[in-house]
Write a structure and sequence with these properties.
The structure is a single chain. The chain is α/β, with parallel strands linked by helices and about 170 residues long. The protein has helices at about 30-45, 60-65, 70-75, 80-90, 125-130, 150-170; strands spanning about 20-25, 45-50, 75-80, 95, 100-105, 115, 135-140. The model has no long low-confidence stretch (mean pLDDT about 90).
Length: about 170
Amino acid sequence: MKHSHSRKFDHPFIWPNPPLHVVLLEPEIPPNTGNIARMCAATGSALHLIEPLGFKLDDAKLKRAGLDYWDAISPKLHKSWHDFVSTENPGRMFLFSTGGSKSLFDEEFQPGDFLVFGSETRGISDDVLGRYPELIIGIPVQTQHVRSLNLSTAAGIAVYEALRQIQRYSM
């Protein structure tokens, strides 16, 4: 962190080892990815970006949203879903989708889990969802009001719920 402030408090917390992995599949909007990068820096989570991206990694809006946290996360860039799966070989993976019939609150997260989120306008492709139907989960929303949550909001909810559970089981 380049700029300190006087209101900082380090809450006692047992961070997961190995860390959580946040996977963005074809993200499109730079500020969402930047916000998620900042959250990954705050939680020690690894960030994976799967191409094609809707922006360049040197995009000013991306950097602005992530502020000066990019050097703390070293995001991994993958050329495709297949490249990601073959390179990372994710052991436990959760695919977040508005069509997920299981709630994230009914899952039991563990250190090292991969939390996968699709693009802002299309979500995770039907092809990927069709390969892993048992891994699809959702975040409860009042669907009569909204169709989905913002990508960075959804990622934040998922990561902090996983951390809450992991912390509880670590004590």
